[in-house]
Amino acid sequence: MALWELSSLEKYLGLKKPNKYSTQGDKKVPVLQNNNGPPLVGLVTLACHLVKEAKRLELLGDSAENRAVVQQWLEYRVTKLNNCTKDNIKTILKDLNLYLQDKVYLAENQFTLADILLYYGIQPIIVDLAIQEQEQYVNVTRWFDHIQHYPGIRRHLSPVVVLRNRIYSSRHH
Amino acid sequence: SMALNLTINTSNVPLGALLAAEHVKGSVQLSVEEGKDTRLQVSEYFNDANSISRYLARVAPALGLYGANMMEQTEVDHWLEFSARRLCGQPGLTEALGELDLALSLRTFLVGHALTLADLSVWAALKGHEEWPSQGKSFSHVNRWFSFLSSQVPFTSVGNKYTSKKS
Per-residue pLDDT tens for B73-118? Predict the structure, then answer.
């Protein structure tokens, strides 16, 4: 699953020469052979490497605080989301919904790599939500719809239909 | 194309029109100066803030400030009217904010997936409204949308320059 994400990211970043990745272990952790040193291992390591290669450092956060927030969500993606079971999907959506209540992006007002990788990771969950659940996790849904329309991000992923007017509750509480 | 000239009344700054002007500046020849009355000089002239915004959005269609299609254009018109009638100084702000909050719960921008005149004019109306700062906390979706725009260029510069002048 991680390999298409890395090639989508390469395209978004406008990197001309696509890298060849391999995978290691049962969990198919992505690996990039590096000519100048030891191989680079892991989705987050590789994604950050691509961002630096493309000289798009702002995608890693533009302040010390934002950089820490970006790293936190990248880690969340590979530890929590990648290992999520049917039982804790609801907990993840609930927590994320609360976090996004007052934010447009994960790092508040700045679009970062964390938004891209969390979008790729959570897409299979959002596809399966009923309209009523979309409204239940309204802040996740709004963030998701914004990122899937962000220029150059969605790639081959199918767009999830999101209603932009609420139908289950006319009140917001 | 011909050069446009926008004059703004500094004692009653048309923030929305000024934001529209800042957005189209790179696409059309436009000068902004301060004067007694707000007006956009074309062959005739416009002196209503929403008319000025509409004209500016239409001379720079590539920016998409009037929406991406006819439906979005109608939505933009709705919000221009909403900001002029419901948010500019009239009583009943709380009710209007309730409607705005509901609309923004599933939207990052008011219309479509990018910035339009709707965002500019509603943001400008709230920015200039005396009661908005005290009401902001009760409407979390409006508040998120408002702070997001406030953190972006040119909202930062226009907001700082003209609201500090007013007080």
Answer: 999 999 999 999 999 877 889 999 999 999 999 999 999 999 999 9
Backbone angles phi, psi at A163, to 5 degrees: -75, 135
List all residues of chain B from 139 to 158 with a beta carbon under 8 Å from chain A.
Answer: 140-141, 143-145, 147-148, 151-152
Q: ipTM of the predicted structure?
A: 0.90
pLDDT value for A163? 86
What domains can be seen in chain A, in order of their start residue? 1-149 (1.20.1050.10)
* Cross-chain Cβ contact A142/B106 below 8 Å: yes
CA dihedral A15, A19, A22, A28 (to 10 degrees): 0
Closest C-alpha to A138, from B140, B147, B139, B105: B105
Say whether residue B160 is in contact with chain A using an 8 A CB cutoff. no
- Residue with the two structure tokens 């990122």: A147
pTM of structure: 0.92
Kindly list the distances between the CA atom of residue A34 and the CA atoms of A17, A41, A46, A48, in Å, as whole numbers in the listed order: 14, 10, 11, 14
CA distance B28 to B25: 6
